[in-house]
Write a structure and sequence with these properties.
By secondary structure, the protein is of the alpha/beta class. It has two domains: 244 residues, Rossmann fold, CATH 3.40.50; 68 residues, no CATH class. It is 33% helix and 29% strand. It has eleven helices and 17 strands. A six-stranded mixed beta sheet has the order 6-7-8-3-9-10, sandwiched between helices. A five-stranded mixed beta sheet has the order 14-13-15-16-17. A four-stranded antiparallel beta sheet has the order 2-1-4-5, covered by helices on one side. α10 links the parallel β13 and β14.
Length: 329
């Protein structure tokens, strides 16, 4: 894989007020990299600096071997495409027209598209799977559809690098997953450098090739999700009161008030869901615990049954309700 961007002792900020200091890092072609960190960590400032919206206070940013400060606006638009969170100002146009705007770094002063430009627009629309939307007005699209159209516009620029600022903000969960998987595929199959900021930590940990962790206390740490989990950095950056990182599962968990113990035995999907429900309402469940005895019995047909202190329980909800009744005795 080739290095598309390299940061050498870069300090970001505004009017000589540093936000992040002395960053040495690089981004590779063919990878999806996610920038994570708490609010106020400097993620947006770093992304704006890499996009040349604001200059670095110190250091060098190399884009495909060239100093960012030495690249003119037209050439930069052929190197970096940026997808922002806010709605585009050009809403009163079709999806096809919006995607065609991505060809502006290559067109004449009058912006006319040649046959080759139209082929790029068509391919970009197809790559993100919105052929059926090409004649729709942008302002009639859902948030997820509009985000796909903006990604297609970025692809139409034919840049090596694509930056995205919170591309999954305001989307429902299935749409977040769809966009993240789309960006991963684009990085892989089109050999693009895809770099995005996001607050969707869990999705980033499941999909991204690399993670950049950023905050004002610890600075910048970079690695694959599994290494960052193993060495404890994910916990250091994000654990707060009531939130902890489970190093066994590689996921963040909400800590609930501990109310008691349940002796839970059995196995299978129903067992796992019962254990999850018990944890959610404050009960530690294990086969060796003291307290109420809950057994999961799996039948030959694959269906499971819940038995609590020797009596059948019709559902997980009924089990939870029984615990709550006991709490009030």
């Amino acid at each position: 894989m080739n290095t598309s961007i390299e940061l050498k002792d870069v300090t970001t900020g505004y009017k000589n007020k540093p936000v992040t200091r002395d960053i040495n890092a690089y981004l590779l072609a063919g990878e999806l990299t996610c920038l994570l960190g708490p609010n106020g960590a400097g993620k947006s400032t770093l992304l704006k600096t890499l996009s040349a919206f604001i200059p670095p206070l110190r250091g060098e940013i190399m884009i495909e071997g060239k100093d960012l400060k030495q690249i003119n606006a037209r050439m930069l638009a052929r190197s970096i495409a940026v997808v922002l969170t806010q709605r585009p100002s050009t809403m009163n146009m079709t999806v096809e027209e919006l995607v065609a705007v991505g060809r502006s770094p290559y067109t004449s002063f009058f912006g006319g598209l040649h046959a080759a430009d139209k082929e790029v627009v068509d391919r970009s629309i197809s790559l993100v799977g919105i052929d059926d939307l090409r004649h729709r007005n942008v302002n009639t699209l859902s948030d997820g559809e509009r985000q796909k159209a903006l990604i297609a516009k970025a692809l139409a620029q034919q840049t090596q690098i694509i930056f995205l600022d919170e591309p999954t903000a305001f989307l429902d969960y299935p749409s977040k997953v769809e966009i993240m998987k789309l960006l991963y595929t684009i990085a892989r199959e089109e050999d693009k450098t895809v770099f995005m900021s996001t607050h969707d930590i869990e999705l980033a940990l499941q999909i991204a090739d690399k993670i950049w962790l950023l905050d004002k206390i610890h600075g910048l740490q970079i690695g694959i999700p599994e290494d960052l989990a193993y060495n404890g950095l994910l916990g250091e950056y994000f654990e707060r009161g009531g939130l902890r990182f489970n190093y066994a599962t590689g996921q963040f968990e909400i800590e609930h008030e501990k109310k008691g113990m349940v002796r839970l035995s059995g196995e299978g999907r129903l067992h796992d869901l019962v254990k999850k429900a018990l944890r959610r309402v404050g009960y530690i469940a294990s086969p060796d615990a003291e307290g109420m005895a809950v057994e999961i019995i799996n039948g030959r047909d694959g269906e499971g049954a819940i038995v609590c202190d020797g009596k059948s329980v019709t559902s997980i909800e009924s089990l939870v309700a029984k615990l709550k009744r006991l709490e009030n005795l």
